Amino acid sequence: MNKPTEPNSFRTGPDEQGMFGIFGGRFVAETLMPLILELQRHWDEAKNDPAFKAELNDLSTHYAGRPSKLYYAEGLTRHLGGAKIYFKREDLNHTGSHKINNCLGQILLAKRMGKTRIIAETGAGQHGVASATVAARFGFPCFVYMGATDVERQKPNVFRMKLLGAEVRPVNAGHGTLKDAMNEALRDWVTNVHDTYYLIGTAAGPHPYPELVRDFQSVIGTEARAQILEQEGRLPDVIVAAVGGGSNAIGLFHPFLDDRSVKIVGIEAGGRGLDGIEHCASMNAGSPGVLHGNRTYLLQNADGQILDGHSISAGLDYPGVGPEHSWLRDTGRVEYVPILDDEALDAFQLTTKVEGIIPALESAHAIAHAVKVAPTMGKDKVMIVNLSGRGDKDVHTVAQMLGMEI
Amino acid sequence: MTTRIDRRMAKLKAEGCPALVTYFMGGDPDYETSLSIMRALPKAGSDIIELGMPFSDPMADGPAIQAAGLRALKAGQTLGKTLQMAREFRKDDNETPIVMMGYYNPIYIYGVDRFLEDAIASGIDGLIVVDLPPEMDAELCIPALKAGINFIRLATPTTDDKRLPKVLENTSGFVYYVSMTGITGSALADTSKVAEAVQRIKAHTDLPVCVGFGVKTAEQAKTIGASADGVVVGTAIVNAVANVIGPKGEKTADPAEAVATLVNGLSQGIRAARLATAQ
After folding, report:
1. d(Cα A118, Cα A110) in Å, to the nearest integer?
2. How does it assemble (chain A) (predicted)?
């Protein structure tokens, strides 16, 4: 594939058609198209409305607990003996992950649009919990679509959603994971388009979702950039985040994209290895295609049928990725590398032991990359890893992998 | 340039009879059986054939068509084989219009230019691609029109008067009005509202308007046919196939015959619509 010409700035996308180069777009059924245009109108107004920003800031501070800390992971740094590692502590947010940033923004949009019913898809359940949380806070009925496999492996989150008053709808199609949940959410949306707001959890889907989710999540990178300048007096050498759909990653990356000295690395789920089909590394082992409203890198066969993929982490178990990541991959600005299930599991245990922090399995993929590369870097180098969520939800999966009973 | 669709629609209009448009899933439950279903359709009273292209993630389809697509894919159906099916059908029937219906990704992966070339060679007359709204016309719609293939657009209850011209702009063959906001196979919408919507669309275009989503019985086909230029039936046909397939994939009766019986009944319903209008 031809590498696109390098732009003057990596932060100006998408264009008016919602494209990042050849990626993105609005590949949806006609029924949804008027609503998507309406969402765009409201979003364009909201992002320039000081009152909207003020309300979101207030909620972020007093409800979600922002800013999240930038924590020097001294134990892990000492253990690895190389670059200084910082964790951006999104795990400390209300609901335990970065997902709340996006949900607060979108629930305010839903309110603005006069919608009265919220639907969401979820993989690991983090976005489902965050959606159920903001729906409870603002008094909306909420329906969360979740693959049946994920319902099984993320039981604590399923229960949390129910406690919060949401209805969890298990989806049995396919492998019963995030892709199938998203299909079913889209079917609900197309049916209930008159009163329903689709609260997409990742920086993917039809335009303007990739843009607005990114903007709501960019608070991560904006804070981290200011915090590292304050704590280290300089920009980091490397920033790292795990990529499923890619919302925590684009949130961290975007404010750093034009800082050319900062190496940016996105971590894909390598599953059981890239040789077979048991992984979710769409940008390392997939090809561009059209799914769920956008063109992006996908795991697919020669006939354009989408594959199911596999990851130990339900949040990374998706055969596509947000379109902006696909573009950043092709331009070469961001490097995307796979981390295997086993490597993530090791990093999960290591972080727990040397830092006293139980990371989400998604975040453990990003930490695993730090475990690999930090020892090869000098002690004067600085790395930021996005600790996108807490790992309490994963203890059952980890126990099973380690052959333990809880 | 007129296509088989234009000619068939003109002929039916002259006869005062709405078109019966029948959807079936290419390759369901297997290639040979599916071809026999396709061949049975015109004789049973189908005026236009919609040939479904299976896709792993059919976001606008209900459980019946989802399952049919998965059966076809499991039996080894590909876009290439769906085109081949049309080509084989054309050997005995050069009149019945064929519209391929599905999602964009398999076409994108096949390659748009190569697809259009092979579609022409296979006797395809039109395309319905669910996830390509007018905003994405440069992808396939414009190249298809240039190649002489009709691009049939879906209009829906959410397509208001302001948006209709945009939807109709590059539409040809006929307009497919989706009777409700929802997925295929849902319950039929209020038929009086459907009639109103058809009139609304007709105020914007001279193209025939066919109505689909939710039409399952001859009686419904008759009611819809009284106001529309055509009636599309899909899920009911796909169900007729599923009903004669056992849990292990064994056939309990001939699927082509089951489909023919159903389509025959629907065709009689449509003809009754014409008679009702004539009186």
Report:
1. 8
2. Tetramer of two alpha and two beta chains.
Give the residue carrying structure tokens 């800031």.
Answer: A57
Which B residues, 131 through 170, put their C-beta within 8 Å of a C-beta on chain A? 131-136, 153-160, 163, 167
Note whether residue A10 is domain-resident. no
Total structural domains within chain A:
2
What pTM did the predictor assign?
0.96
Strands (E), B150-257: 150-151, 154-155, 175-178, 209-212, 230-233
Picking from B106, B167, B186, the nearest residue to A304 by CB comes out as: B106
- Are residues A33 and A154 both part of a single domain? yes
Q: How far apart are CA A263 and CA A382, in angstroms?
A: 11
Give the phi and the psi of residue B200 in degrees, each rounded to 5. Answer: -60, -45
In a domain, A12, yes or no: no
Q: Please indicate whether, in this complex, the C-beta atoms of B79 and A304 are within 8 angstroms of each other.
A: yes
Tell me the two tokens of residue A394.
């994963």
A318 and A186 inside one domain: no
In this structure, are A206 and A291 located in the same domain? Answer: no
**In terms of residue numbers, what domain contains B124?**
4-278
Domain of A265, in residue numbers: 66-97+218-401
Q: Do residues A120 and A193 both lie within one domain?
A: yes
Taking CA atoms, what residue in A is nearest to B134?
Answer: A30
Give how many domains chain B has, as a whole number. Answer: 1
CATH number for B79 = 3.20.20.70
Alpha helices in A275-360 (DSSP H): 282-285, 323-331, 341-355
Cβ(B106)–Cβ(B72) under 8 Å? no
CA neighbours within 13 Å on the CB side: how many for A309?
34
CB half-sphere exposure, A123, CA atoms < 13 A = 25
**Which residue in A has a C-alpha nearest to residue B157's C-alpha?**
A31
